[in-house]
C-alpha cells in the first residue's frame, strides 16, 4: 500500500470519529504571531511544544532553512498576509542547529539533479532565462547568520508596518533548547 492510501484510510477514520474537534480553532493566530521556521521533520511537534504553543496559536510558515530568498517571494508575502489579514503583531524566525541547508552547495546538489534525469540542456535553459541556480541552490555556513539575515530583511521590508516586532531564534532539534539571535525587547527567564 502506498503512503497516500494510508493517509486516505486514516483520514476517513479521523473524520468519522470526529477527532478534528480536538483541533478546532479560527484562522486568526491566538498569540498574534507568525513564525518562519525550517521544514525539518524534527521540528514538526518539537517546536510548538518547546515554545508552549498549541494548535491555533501562531501562523507557521515552513521552508528549507527558514530562509527568505527574495523580499517579494512567497515567504515574505505569507508573513505580510499574516500581519495585514490575520492580525499577527510579531514575527519570529526560528532556524535550527544541524540544518540540511547548512553547508548546502549548488554543485553537489546539481549533480544529484542530473543523476535523477534532469538534462544539462534544461539547466542551461534556466541559466539563459536569468535563473541563478548557483545562488538559489547554495545554503549557509552559520545558522545564526542566516536567521539574522532573514530578520534584517523582514525588519527593513517596505511593506512592514511600524510597530511589528521581529525576532530571531535558533532551536536545538535534539533538546528543544532556544538561543536568541535577534530580539526586539529584553527577555528575562526565571528558572
TrEMBL record:
Residues the entry annotates as binding Zn(2+): 38, 40, 96, 99
Alphabetized, the UniProt keywords read: Metal-binding, Zinc
> Which cofactors must be present for this protein to function?
Zn(2+)
EC annotation? 4.2.1.1
- The answer to keyword Zinc applying to this record is yes
Q: Which Gene3D superfamilies match?
A: Carbonic anhydrase (3.40.1050.10)
Q: Which GO terms describe its molecular function?
A: carbonate dehydratase activity; zinc ion binding
Q: Pfam families, per this entry? A: Pro_CA
According to the record, cofactor stoichiometry and binding are noted as:
Binds 1 zinc ion per subunit.
Q: Which reaction does it catalyse?
A: hydrogencarbonate + H(+) = CO2 + H2O
Q: Which residues form a coiled coil?
A: none
The reply on keyword Metal-binding is yes
Per the similarity annotation, which family is this? Belongs to the beta-class carbonic anhydrase family.
**Entry protein name:** carbonic anhydrase
Instruction: Specify the species.
Output: Fictibacillus solisalsi
What taxonomic classification does the UniProt entry list for its organism? Bacteria, Bacillati, Bacillota, Bacilli, Bacillales
Amino acid at each position: 500500500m502506498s503512503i497516500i492510501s494510508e493517509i486516505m484510510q486514516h483520514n476517513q477514520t479521523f473524520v468519522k470519529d470526529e477527532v478534528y474537534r480536538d483541533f478546532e480553532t479560527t484562522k486568526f493566530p491566538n498569540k498574534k504571531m507568525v513564525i518562519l521556521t525550517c521544514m525539518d521533520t524534527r521540528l514538526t511537534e518539537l517546536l510548538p511544544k518547546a515554545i508552549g504553543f498549541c494548535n491555533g496559536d501562531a501562523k507557521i510558515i515552513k521552508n528549507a532553512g527558514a530562509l527568505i530568498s527574495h523580499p517579494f517571494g512567497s515567504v515574505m508575502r505569507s508573513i505580510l498576509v499574516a500581519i495585514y489579514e490575520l492580525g499577527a503583531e510579531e514575527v519570529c524566525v526560528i532556524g535550527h542547529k544541524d540544518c540540511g541547508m547548512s553547508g548546502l552547495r549548488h554543485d553537489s546538489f546539481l549533480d544529484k539533479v542530473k543523476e535523477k534525469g534532469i538534462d544539462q540542456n534544461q539547466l542551461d535553459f534556466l541559466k539563459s532565462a536569468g535563473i541563478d541556480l548557483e545562488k538559489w541552490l547554495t545554503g549557509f555556513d552559520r545558522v545564526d547568520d542566516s536567521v539574522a539575515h532573514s530578520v534584517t530583511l523582514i525588519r527593513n521590508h517596505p511593506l512592514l508596518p511600524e510597530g511589528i516586532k521581529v525576532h530571531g531564534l535558533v532551536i536545538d532539534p535534539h533538546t528543544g533548547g532556544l538561543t536568541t539571535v535577534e530580539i526586539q525587547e529584553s527577555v528575562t527567564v526565571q528558572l
